[in-house]
Write a structure and sequence with these properties.
- The chain has 568 residues and is α+β, with helices and mostly antiparallel strands.
- The strands form 5 sheets. A 9-stranded antiparallel beta sheet has the order 4-3-2-1-5-6-7-8-9. The protein has a 6-stranded antiparallel beta sheet with strand order 14-15-17-16-18-21.
- Helix 7 packs antiparallel against helix 9.
- The longest helix is centred in the middle third of the chain and has 51 residues.
- The chain is elongated.
- It starts with 5 loop residues before the first helix and ends in a 5-residue tail after the last strand.
């Protein structure tokens, strides 16, 4: 993830100073464990300022309104109590080439600040600290005690101290090329790394941009540069410093991330650029983490269920042979006269086949007692079959349900925020079905957004909707579908509910049916097969049994068509 470097910080602070000083703080909302949103209102507009101390995505920018929901965090509650309603009268970088910003709050715009909200953007050490006018810490996003850091503690009631200054030279416009070149080439090494080590404020991204603009290969060392390359690099170095000094920034998204040193004709609003880039990265990170957690959880549950299923199958298999014990008991009762004291086994001819049957005996019991033992075992196994059958059906239902969710998870890849929402809905479903403990998988997103199904067009232009989780499957089948639509599903295996949308009187062609069947096959457990049997029927012939889990249905009056998963 691209770091929020000093150049970006300067650009964002300049934008905030130009547009939000002064403004009134109307609301504070904590979105999650590492970010807050401040609602700022001035004469022209109302905006939400995001302040994040996320280890990989610490930043400040005007962003999206926070999701509606209950804010239960202590830090935001203290900020609301202490500075809500105050005026934001200043935004300052406390020291050149350091990433610490001072947000100053007063009761009125023309008064001295009563509180300072310091935002430290320092990777995993990022933090947000509220102090009074005398710089005494009132509350902090992340307490840093002596057992966590021997260098600097950050605790309530302490006097706020700035983080230790960075090492390296301070970049200066007036520095000559000779002096600058001498510092950068002092220690042999790759030119981008030596730029970063030699001067403050040079992030890997800035170093890369300077070299690309100078047409210098990133793998070159400082010993390999020609004098012309040094001159071109110094020229772009000076341009970069001039941009910082004059606050001339041109931001836009790139294929690798974003830049604030682009061309004027490509410039976009810097807050839009920063907000979009980091939100997408965080959504993607959350998606990957949550998907792995859910897949591991489902895998563990399925493993236990399949072990239980195998035990039930063994019981039923054993019960199916219960007649053997009854026949042996009958043989013993028919040959009581052949018993002798102390016998451990006896061989008798079967009534039907005449084949010899070996029967083990308890030597301390007579023939009748041994027969009674066999009769009891027969009755026990017969009862066990009746008792185990519904338990096996229940386990099979759970296995089918969880395999459907496993398929949904496997076929989900992150492309946009809606994919994360789809995943969060799967998590919520598993919590509701008691497969996951709510406290263990607490959802701090408080999102009220609902994910949408995948949408495709058939060759004739009909819309096809494909459910991405069980919530969507149920909505498609029982709310979205009309009497004119056709409902598709892979036959007898887990898969998505697929809906071919039709109007009254529409008669889809064979190519439309095949296209939809291909989709149903692709979004099913049979994706890797060459062909998958797919059924389709009218939605009126699809039912949810009483007490069935989400996404589980039965159907009738179906037609079978072979779907080809490699439709695209």
């Amino acid at each position: 993830m691209q770091p929020f470097d000093y150049t970006t910080l300067k650009a964002v602070c300049y934008s905030l100073q130009e547009n939000y000083i002064p403004s009134r703080l109307e609301q504070v909302y904590q979105c999650d464990r590492t970010s807050i949103s401040l609602c700022l209102r001035n004469i022209e507009k109302k905006s939400w300022l995001t302040i994040s101390w996320h280890p990989q995505a610490a930043r400040i920018c005007v962003g999206n309104p926070p999701p509606r929901g209950k804010d239960t965090f202590t830090f935001s509650d203290q900020l609301r109590h202490l500075i809500n309603g105050y005026a934001l009268i200043g935004i300052e970088i406390v020291s050149d080439w350091e990433r610490v910003i001072d947000f100053q709050f007063a009761q009125r715009p023309n008064e001295s600040p009563l509180n300072h909200l310091y935002v430290e953007i320092m990777g995993k050490y990022s933090n947000v600290i509220l102090t009074n006018a005398d710089n005494q810490i009132i509350t902090v996003a992340k307490q840093v005690t002596a057992d966590k850091s021997t260098l600097r503690t950050v605790e309530t009631s302490q006097i706020y101290q700035l983080p230790p200054p960075l090492t390296g030279n301070i970049p200066k416009l007036e520095e000559s090329q000779e002096t600058w070149q001498e510092k950068v080439s002092l220690i042999p090494g790759r030119i981008d790394k030596q730029l970063i080590k030699s001067y403050r404020g040079i992030s890997p991204n800035i170093a890369k941009e300077l070299l690309q603009k100078s047409d210098i290969d990133l793998s070159k060392t400082n010993q390999e540069l020609t004098q012309n390359e040094w001159q071109e690099l110094y020229k772009n170095w000076q341009t970069w410093l001039t941009s910082i000094e004059k606050n001339q920034f041109y931001s836009h998204l790139t294929s690798q991330g974003y830049t604030v040193l682009g061309e004027p004709n490509q410039a976009e609003n810097i807050n839009f650029v920063i907000n979009k880039y980091y939100n997408q990265k965080i959504y993607q990170e959350n998606f990957i983490q949550l998907k792995q957690q859910l897949q591991q959880k489902i895998k563990n549950i399925l493993k236990k269920l399949k072990t239980k299923k195998n035990k039930y199958l063994e019981k039923i298999k054993e019960s199916n042979n219960c007649e053997v014990y009854s026949n042996k008991a009958d043989l013993l009762m028919a040959h009581l006269n052949q018993w002798q004291v102390g016998m451990k086994e006896i061989t008798l001819n079967d009534f039907t086949t005449g084949e010899p049957v070996k029967i083990n005996l308890a030597p301390d019991k007579n023939m009748i007692q041994n027969a009674q033992i066999l009769y009891k075992k027969y009755q026990k196994l017969k009862r066990a079959k009746q008792a185990v059958k519904p338990l096996l059906d229940e386990v099979n239902e759970e296995v089918n349900y969880l395999e459907q969710i496993a398929i949904n998870l496997q076929q989900l890849d992150y492309q946009e925020k809606d994919d994360l929402t789809t995943l969060q809905e799967i998590k919520s479903e598993l919590i509701n079905q008691k497969y996951i403990e709510d406290k263990q998988y607490r959802n701090n997103d408080n999102s009220e957004e609902e994910s949408q199904p995948r949408s495709y067009k058939t060759p004739s232009g009909y819309e096809v909707l494909v459910g991405r989780n069980n919530r969507q499957n149920d909505i498609l089948t029982f709310k979205t579908a009309t009497d004119y639509d056709l409902w598709f599903h892979a036959q007898e295996i887990s898969g998505s509910h697929v809906l071919l949308r039709l109007n009254a009187g529409d008669a889809p062609e064979e190519k439309d049916l095949q296209f939809t069947a291909n989709l149903a096959a692709y979004y099913s457990q049979g994706r890797e097969s060459e062909q998958v049997p797919v059924i389709y029927t009218n939605p009126n012939h699809v039912y949810k049994p009483k007490g069935a889990k989400p996404g589980m249905v039965i159907y009738s009056r179906e037609t079978v068509i072979w779907g080809k998963p490699l439709f695209n």
